[in-house]
Specification:
The complex is a heterodimer of chains A (875) and B (91). Chain A is α/β, with parallel strands linked by helices. Helix content of chain A is 45%, strand content 15%. In chain B, helix 1 packs parallel to helix 2. The chains are: A alpha/beta (875), B alpha/beta (91). The interface between A and B is medium-sized, with 12 and 12 residues.
Chain lengths: 875, 91
């Protein structure tokens, strides 16, 4: 059995209800076997049957309920069949219903199952016809619980639809109707485990019960439609539309107009027009009498006896003398709320009007009406002023905002506008509903989304001009310049490098030299440099130096061309450069300058990278900037500028280049484009670094190492680096270890770590499988290191790396730097946090590093050798 | 365990009778009845209730009913009506 027992139900009644649900459940299950063509055929037959019987069903409804207008009910039945069918006939509701190949998405329809549907007294047959067509289109089985006072006509509509559906092949039991429905029956069914959805169209009680059941529910109920008739409106059209709508089926459609707020300037003219067309405009006394008579002061709601009655009948009942053919009773109100009874929803042809002295007052009153029982439902505005229409739309919270057309027929959709035709209006959260839509087929389906793996487009972005080999600097002659700023450091100026560059510049260029400290660029230094740049208005900046100088020049150019660049925002962390929150500004002041980078070390590769680090000493922090707009325009990789590099710097920068290449090689962002550069860089470093280290005058080794650095940078500019860099940054910052050395201390351990089976994989749509170990094996093969298995090859690579580190006399453990075990262990937790926050590894390192694993890597680096013992992942 | 293989056509008129006959041949507990559904594309309400009836009767006799060649559409119907666990399945 289902849910909570309802004490007032007899066992016999429970058995009856269980039978209904069982039948519907079987029908819903059998319905899942049907094709789109089959359900379309059945729905079409039902729509035709509904059209054929529209008048007969309307007659039954009118005779049973004595509510509304027979002719209008017949029209509603036609809308509920023909218009609804016309909208749904081509809609796919079975199997794959929508496909988005470019997004790799397919939407697949899944029927809901058994729906318990409560239908109202006001639109009994039209609502049934509409829901039956929805049910068949979506292959659901409906149990109907009609309003008891409209049961016979509702049952007739259900029978008509069911017999037609069965005749055309629908499963038995697809529609059933509660006999002698009671609130207890409703309550039992709403809580039944086999009822999948409650679909309640009706009064407050039914909707509230539906939402209180704990079941998914479409509960669409009452409203209170405000109308703003603004002074620019077409008055004749507005008055006819309002009368048409408010008198349609004697005002029983819950989207019909309730209070019309009219601008003072046109108020009298509008009321006269209403009167001319058959409305009775009540005087003050009549208005008060009307309010007392049709609204229950106890509940504050309109009395049921007036619902769907003719205006003349209502007037007669309460003693207001009117013409027998009076269409509408109109009474002026002076406020909204319980003390103004006629400001409530009135599902009969009684209309409240309000005189507004200004647009603001009019909108305020409309909002008041909207919040007095009409949230989420429907509102109407008549105006030719687009600004007023826009303001109204923003101020009023209704699912349907009908512009210059009748509220009730407008809200139904498909007649006066292109909204989805419906007999069920979603009222959003304001009305306690789950949707503001006009309820239609998609609300009766579970839509499954089949999402295919998508490979996001990748990129390979590098400066478009790279010049290399000795005397490449001569290319500077080709670049016209009237004012060139050379950014460098003091030492390079002293050893004559600046002069070498200056000699290659075109004679017309006025040359300015900015020397900055040989350290990570500080914000204050950059801002001082910017002053120089603003004075000399350079059309060309030449960055001559190591990574720090080139970084400073990149930042100078950025700030020069885009003064609005905000380093706080641009330095914000990001996970995917394409989806980053902070966007780099486009050039904002017309300044444009060419950036030419001439590296004087062979390691950072800053001459081609889109990165720069800025030190904000005042606030004690580093800002890492990353954007392809930072990439230099031209890179000149001329080995003459590295021939005098000291041994230590040669080793440090060379190992940095190797780390760049190895990390880019196994990055999850690696591609055939980055691999080509990374692999070549690795090969060159293994072949030439030790030679350059041991004999700095070896021009071939220097040239190859300079190229290797640039190639590695081309790779990591696009594939990024990984956890080795993150750990090295934190270690270097904490203990003042040079970047290359910090990398060297970690490198063998990180290779072994990345080559083993990850405890956490890095999510990556770019790669089909974990490949880091295999790529290390490819490197080993490239270097001719031997080995029969991947594991052997990885081990050989680790050994070769250790041998290279030995040969260039890198410290082989953190302990060897003279850092005590105590100091180291004290620093580890903070270093791990800093490393984890470092953008270097995100989201590119092949393993997603756990903080415990980072700790372990630091400890291994402290101890030194032994990393190669970690097993590589299997082939 | 003895196995009876019944090849039946599921249609509204004959299904109950066919199933009853198949079950009538099963005299003792521990036997298995295999129903071949490989040519059944769709079932209707009559067939569904006949299958439910068969499952009940088979359980009463201690007979196992296995369905062979059940397509995914039919299997979904059995799942939705909670009949699926009352049968075993062979491919």
């Amino acid at each position: 059995m289902a849910g909570n027992q309802i004490p007032t139900l007899t066992e016999e009644r429970i058995a009856y209800l269980e039978g209904l649900v069982g039948r519907a459940k079987a029908a819903a299950a059998l319905f899942t076997q049907y094709s789109q063509d089959e359900v379309d055929r059945i729905a079409k037959a039902m729509a035709i049957a509904g059209m054929e019987q529209a008048r007969q069903l309307a007659t039954l409804a009118f005779e049973e309920t004595r509510i509304g207008v027979l002719e209008d009910k017949a029209l509603k039945n036609m809308v509920a069949t023909e218009f609804v069918y016309n909208y749904v006939k081509d809609k796919r509701t079975v199997g794959a219903i929508r496909e988005f190949p470019e997004r790799g998405l397919v939407e697949v329809a899944e029927p809901i199952g058994v729906v318990f549907s409560i239908t109202p007294i006001t639109n009994p047959t039209a609502t049934v016809l509409f829901k039956c067509i929805m049910a068949v289109k979506t292959r659901n089985a409906f149990i109907f619980g009609p309003h008891p006072m409209a049961w016979r006509c509702s049952r007739a509509a259900i029978d008509l639809m069911y017999e037609t559906a069965l005749k055309h092949g629908a499963p038995e039991g697809v529609f059933t109707c509660l006999e002698s429905p009671t609130l207890e029956d409703n309550s039992y069914l709403m809580r039944h485990k086999d009822v999948a959805l409650i679909d309640a169209t009706g009064g407050r009680g039914a909707v509230k019960a539906a939402y209180s059941s704990g079941k998914p529910a479409l509960g669409v109920g009452p409203g209170n439609t405000p109308v703003y008739l603004e002074k620019t409106a077409d008055i004749d059209m507005a008055v006819v539309d309002i009368i048409t709508s408010k008198t349609f089926d004697n005002g029983t459609i819950c989207a019909s107009e309730q209070t019309v707020v009219i601008d003072d300037e046109i108020f009298d003219r509008v009321l006269k027009r209403f009167a001319d067309l058959g409305a009775h405009v009540c005087n003050r006394k009549e208005g008060e009498l009307l309010g007392r008579a049709v609204v229950d002061p106890e509940t504050g709601y309109a009395r049921a006896m007036a619902v769907g009655q003719k205006a003349s009948n209502i007037a007669r009942m309460i003693g207001i003398p009117v013409q027998p053919d009076t269409k509408l009773l109109i009474a002026e109100i002076h406020g909204v709320g319980r003390e103004h009874p006629l400001s409530v929803e009135k599902l009969f042809p009684v209309l409240a009007v309000y005189r507004a002295k200004s647009v603001d007052e009019a909108l305020r009153v409309c909002v008041d009406v909207n919040h007095f029982g009409g949230l989420g439902h429907t509102s109407v505005v008549f105006s030719r002023n687009e600004e007023v229409i826009r303001k109204f739309g923003e101020a009023i919270n209704t699912g349907r905002i009908i512009v210059n057309s009748p509220g009730s027929i407008g809200a139904i959709g498909g007649v006066y506008n292109d909204m989805v035709p419906t007999l069920s209006f979603g009222c959003g959260t304001g009305g306690g509903n789950s949707t503001t839509d006009n309820v239609n087929v998609y609300h009766y389906l579970n839509i499954k989304r089949m999402a295919r793996r998508m490979q996001a487009p990748m990129w390979f972005r590098v400066p478009n001009q790279i010049y290399f080999n000795r005397n490449a600097v001569e290319v500077l002659r080709q670049f016209p310049s009237r004012s060139t700023l050379i950014v460098t450091n003091q030492v390079l100026q002293q050893i004559g490098y600046v002069e070498t560059v200056r000699r290659q510049l075109p004679p017309e260029a006025v040359v300015h030299v900015l020397t900055i400290p040989d350290a990570e660029p500080e914000l204050a230094v950059v801002m001082r440099g910017l002053d120089t740049l603003n004075v000399c208005r350079a059309d060309q900046i030449i960055a001559l130096g190591g990574g720090s100088v080139i970084d400073a020049a990149k930042i100078l150019k950025l700030k020069y061309e885009s003064p609005q660049a905000d380093f706080d925002e641009l330095g914000a962390p990001f996970l995917d450069i394409r989806k980053r929150i902070a966007q780099y500004p486009p050039p904002g002041n017309g300044n444009h300058t060419r950036l030419i980078a001439i590296p004087t070390t062979s390691g950072t590769g800053s001459e081609v990278t889109p990165f720069a680090v800025l030190l904000d000493k005042e606030r004690g922090r580093k800002v890492t900037l990353a954007d392809y707009s930072l990439s230099p325009d031209v890179a000149i990789v001329d080995p003459q500028f590295v021939m005098s590099m000291p041994k230590g710097l040669t080793a440090d920068t060379g190992i940095d280049a190797l780390t760049h290449a190895l990390e880019a090689g196994v990055s999850v962002y690696s591609s055939a484009y980055t691999d080509a550069n990374a692999m070549q860089a690795i090969r060159l470093v293994f072949r030439y670094l030790a030679i350059a280290y041991e004999n700095g005058r070896d021009e071939e080794a220097r040239t190859m190492m300079h190229n290797a650095s640039c190639l590695a940078a081309l790779a990591f500019s696009n594939a990024s680096v990984g956890v080795n860099h993150a750990l090295a940054h934190a270690l270097g910052a904490r203990f003042g270890v040079a970047h290359g050395r910090a990398n060297a201390l970690l490198l063998p351990h990180v290779i072994a770590y990345n080559a083993s089976v990850p405890s956490k994989f890095m999510p990556s749509p770019h790669q089909r499988a974990y490949t880091a170990h295999k790529k290390y094996a490819v490197v080993a093969d490239l270097l001719g290191l031997g080995g029969d298995t991947v594991e052997q090859k990885v081990n050989n690579l680790v050994t070769a790396t250790e041998q290279l580190l030995d040969r260039v006399e890198m410290p082989r453990s953190i302990a060897a730097l003279g850092i005590s075990k105590e100091d180291f262990e004290r620093a580890v937790p903070d270093m791990v946090k800093v490393a984890f926050d470092d953008p270097s590894w995100r989201p590119t390192n092949p393993r997603l590093p756990l903080m415990s694993e980072m700790t372990d890597l630091y400890r291994r680096a402290y101890a030194g050798r032994g990393a190669a013992q970690t097993a590589a992942a299997s082939d | 365990m003895a196995t009876n293989v019944a090849s039946i056509e599921i249609d509204k008129q004959r299904v109950s009778e066919s199933l009853r006959n198949a079950l009538a041949n099963m005299e003792s507990a521990g036997q298995e009845l295999v129903l071949d559904f490989s040519s059944v594309n769709r079932i209707d309400a009559g067939a569904l209730s006949a299958l439910a009836e068969l499952a009940g009767a088979a359980e009463g006799k201690g007979v196992t009913v296995a369905l062979s060649g059940v397509g995914m559409e039919l299997y979904r119907v059995l799942k939705l009506t909670r009949l699926a666990p009352r049968f075993s399945y062979v491919d």
